[in-house]
Design goal:
The chain is an alpha/beta fold and 231 residues long. It contains 6 helices and 8 strands, in the order βββαβααβαββαβα. The mean pLDDT is 98.
Length: 231
């Protein structure tokens, strides 16, 4: 795989960066990886490379660029406090529009040969859901997306296939929130849910104490199987 940072043109004429990782063949369907609150850090870049190794042309856009470009934080107390501050000041509507422009930029790359999907983690899971509702992508995967239950007025707008991953013992997303999201999609044939037993929030991130190797591997396989049907 090869990787580089590219410039993405925003709707207001400004530009922001995205980490692009290419598959071994050099081309393939497009996939956006949307960061957690710690930015496009080493872990998110590694996840982008992971999906690139699976044959996707992967773009991880810098979500926080309007507040602070190039955020790259660790999981220690100081960085996490800063990360929460950045998340709390994020304009979800503006970020969704920025991700729409990122999806357009990905589609326009000569290496991108097919449709474009999106996979988001935590805050990125919420943005993946909102991007699906915005019609920006052809498929969406939301890993333990916090706050989706606050945007269920957008559920009817999600027309593409969407897969939700949740952790049974999530300390950040209560079962009532998951139930509300399931209820909003009860009659939607395009939505599917995986609730992983004996796991906590952030199970896919190997840099955090909540990492669960078995569940991360299973969910990754489920996500690949899901994306392969659409992209």
């Amino acid at each position: 795989m090869t990787s580089r940072w590219i410039d993405i043109q925003a709707e207001d004429g400004k530009s922001f960066k995205g980490y692009l990782s290419l598959p071994p063949t050099g081309s393939g369907p497009g996939l956006m990886i949307i960061q957690e609150i710690w930015g496009v850090n080493a872990h998110i870049r590694a996840v982008a490379d992971q999906y690139a190794s699976n044959g996707y042309v992967v773009l991880a856009p810098d979500v926080f660029w309007r507040s602070e470009p190039g955020v790259d934080l660790d999981y220690n107390e100081t960085d996490t406090k800063k990360a929460y501050g950045l998340m709390n000041s994020l304009d979800n509507a503006q970020a969704t529009q920025d991700l729409d422009k990122a999806a357009q930029a990905l589609r326009a790359l000569p290496e991108c040969t097919g449709k474009v999907g999106i996979v988001g983690f935590c805050m990125g899971g919420r943005l993946a859901y909102l991007s699906a509702a915005n019609g920006s992508v052809d498929a969406a995967v939301a890993y333990y997306g916090g706050g989706i239950d606050k945007f269920l007025d957008q559920a009817d707008k999600v027309k593409c296939p969407i897969l939700f991953h949740y952790a049974e013992k999530d300390a950040h997303i209560p079962p009532t929130a998951v139930s509300a999201i399931k209820a909003a999609f009860a009659n939607a044939s395009n939505a599917s849910f995986e609730v992983h037993p004996d796991t906590d929030h952030g199970f896919n991130c190997w840099g955090r104490p909540s990492y669960n190797q078995k569940t991360a591997a299973l969910a990754h396989g489920q996500s690949l199987a899901f994306l392969s049907k659409v992209l």
